[in-house]
Amino acid sequence: MTKPIIEVKNLAKNFDKNVVLKDITEQVDPGQVVVVIGPSGSGKSTFLRCLNLLETPTSGQVSFDGQDLTTLDTKRVNALREEMGMVFQSFNLFPNMSVLENIKLAPMKVKGMGNDEATKLAHQLLQQVNLDDHADAFPTSLSGGQAQRVAIARALAMNPKVMLFDEPTSALDPEMVGEVLNVMQDLAAQGMTMVVVTHEMGFAKSVADRVWFMDDGYIQENSTPADFFAHPKTDRAKDFLSKILM
Amino acid sequence: MKKKLAFIFALAFALFIGWGALTPTTAQAATDDSLSQVQKKGKLVMGTSPDYPPYEFQATVHGKSKIVGMDVAVGQKIAKDLGVKLVVKSMSFDSLLVALQTGKVDMVISGMNPTPARKKNVDFTHLYYQGGYSIVVNKSEKGLYKDKDSFKGKTIGAQTGSTMFNETKKQTTGTKVKGMTSVSDLILALQSHKIDGVAMEKPSAQAYVANNKQLAMIPSHFDLSSSDTSAAVAFKKGSTSLVNAANKSVDQIRKQNLVNKKYLPAAGKHLKTNTVNTSMWHYWKAFLTGVKYTLIITVCSVFFGFILGVILSLARMAHGGVLKTGLRWLATAYVEFIRGTPMMVQVMFVYFGLGLIVNLPALTSGIIAISLNSGAYIAEYIRGGINSVDEGQTEAARSLGLTSASTLRYVVLPQALKNIWPSLGNEFITLIKDSSIVSIIGVSELIFQSNIVRSDTYRGVAPIAVIMVLYFIMTFTASRILNYFERRMQHD
């Protein structure tokens, strides 16, 4: 049996009196693609952000590669964050840098990679997301789909073991959703471990190994996509699916 | 609770600063080694306000601007008799006694009357000169006035902080008394009919009338004791050995009547050469020096102010443990305190107040004071700039493994800087103008230089017009350069 790469135990998170995550215990194995779905406000994004400590859990443990992140000092947390790439709903590209510089920043400043090597790596990644001709463009001149692909390339530049996606297509125009999902699908095919919060049920069905259905601060169901979409167990999941699948 | 805490911090901060100024006054009289100290230094620093010809004024000697006059001659005599070198430091008359008390200068010779009030704070030598008061009026109006009593319903001007100012107030009825820092300003006010007469010492009045055909003088008929009409050299309280030594020189000066025989005629010669060429071109070097120092002060202050501003703004945004909270309170208290006190007071405080602990030159003091001031304002701009950068930028950088310092340096600050660039530019341009405040501690920036040219040439308006143009050239060029960089930072 393989050792899980991410292990969550009794994770809870509240913002003041607002309890968002109540008690979550789950794990992700290397190479797995987990899709987290659920109604808005169910805590999906907060959960994802707890995995790389962008949000500090109120209680519980989040382990990455066998190390409990909640007990580590800032330096160690920074080091482990390198290994977890994250892609945001609103891209969050750095507007003061060109596409190439966006990708080169972390390898150079965190890993101490030389300029030539970083440039080479950046071009490679841009080719992978089909955007090498935009290397010198600035983020404001890109379309949403292009920006999100650059953001993925930027996260990949740190050669992460896991990629976290926080609703990567929710801010995109419909015709651009496909190009981003294709890149993600390729990544999954290459064996990347991924945790994806999304509303794209098609992606969940065709790419995910596991579907986690989240509601009311708990993971209500954890099953294969086939099982989940054909035979949802809980009433909440049935209700959710009936709303989105029409 | 929060407000109260902030108040306590501000108070503690103020007390901390104030403490430095209050303690040393008590420790003065312990031992008097004033004379040996001066001899050890090998120089005697004399403070004076060089806008009072023929006592002291600026003259161009061999192409160089220099302070001359009978008081300087007195100072030279004292220094020579002590066997040390004389160094003349110029500053406004108001600042002279403070400079003496804080050790910025060793003695003050500036036509100063040894009044009882002054005697409480400093020690005076015997009198080296005994004059009287006159009132300078416009020649066209000379017939209207006989003496001080002819100014009912009119205005007499006098130098702020001078004996004339107080006596004119005391001894006239129904007359308004207008105080200004420099005599050349008073003369200008007289010629533009803002005031009707200027009270000053007789020798000065004679010098002005001799150099300006539109002026005339009348006797004042003030009722004065000899200490009010005479001049003596001031030393720091308790420096008896130095006063005694200086008294020997002063007694010689009186005995040989050196002032009337030698010093005044020599000063008169300078006055003549001084007025030969009063065109502004003749003084381009003086203006250039002014521009140079104004730019040095501004650029240095913006540089250090920016560094201080970054530190302060980060401290103000620190959250977390007791240490960070304390840091935040301290930075907030600092910013509030600096913004809540006038820059002029800060400049004087750094020069005179800090001067009690370390002896800083005027230029350094000026740069420190303005940097400290500008840092508080820049901190607020930067704080606003950082807050205006989207939280997602930080999250993206942190998720890539960047430390909080790298995130700030490569991601947040460049964007914040772009957002606040217009405000920073504004601060820079404001500082070019506001750096003029350091003229009160005698830094030869543009305003100070223009005052020298004004008292040099007896021309009141022309130098002001020149520096107005010079200031505009500087600010306009600066704003063009800033705009260029602003455009370069736009990527959309």
Task: Provide a brief overview of the structure.
The complex is a heterodimer of chains A (246) and B (492). With 246 residues, chain A is an alpha/beta fold.
Structure description:
- The complex is a heterodimer of chains A (246) and B (492).
- With 246 residues, chain A is α/β, with parallel strands linked by helices.
- Chain A has one domain (6-245): Rossmann fold (3-Layer(aba) Sandwich).
- Chain A contains 9 helices and 10 strands.
- Chain A has a 6-stranded mixed sheet, sandwiched between helices. A 4-stranded antiparallel sheet of chain A has the order 2-1-4-5, with helices on one face.
- In chain A, helix 3 packs parallel to helix 5 and helix 5 (144-156) packs parallel to helix 6 (174-189).
- Chain A is globular.
- Chain B is an alpha/beta fold and 492 residues long.
- Chain B has 4 domains: 1-31; 32-130 and 230-276, D-Maltodextrin-Binding Protein, domain 2; 133-219, Periplasmic binding protein-like II (D-Maltodextrin-Binding Protein, domain 2), CATH 3.40.190; 282-491, Orthogonal Bundle (MetI-like fold), CATH 1.10.3720.10.
- Chain B has 19 helices and 13 strands.
- Chain B has helices at residues 2-22, 34-41, 70-82, 93-101, 116-121, 163-171, 183-191, 202-211, 226-229, 240-255, 258-274, 284-316, 322-339, 343-353, 362-387, 391-399, 404-434, 446-457, 462-489, and strands at 43-48, 51-52, 56-61, 64-68, 85-90, 107-108, 122-130, 133-138, 155-159, 176-180, 197-201, 215-219, 230-236.
- In chain B, the strands form 3 sheets. In chain B, strands 5-1-6-13-7 form a 5-stranded mixed sheet, with helices on both faces. A 5-stranded mixed sheet of chain B has the order 10-9-11-8-12, with helices on both faces.
- The longest helix of chain B is centred in the middle third of the chain and has 33 residues, at 284-316.
- The two termini of chain B are 46 Å apart.
- At the A-B interface, helix 2, strand 6, helix 3 and helix 5 of A face helix 16 and helix 17 of B.
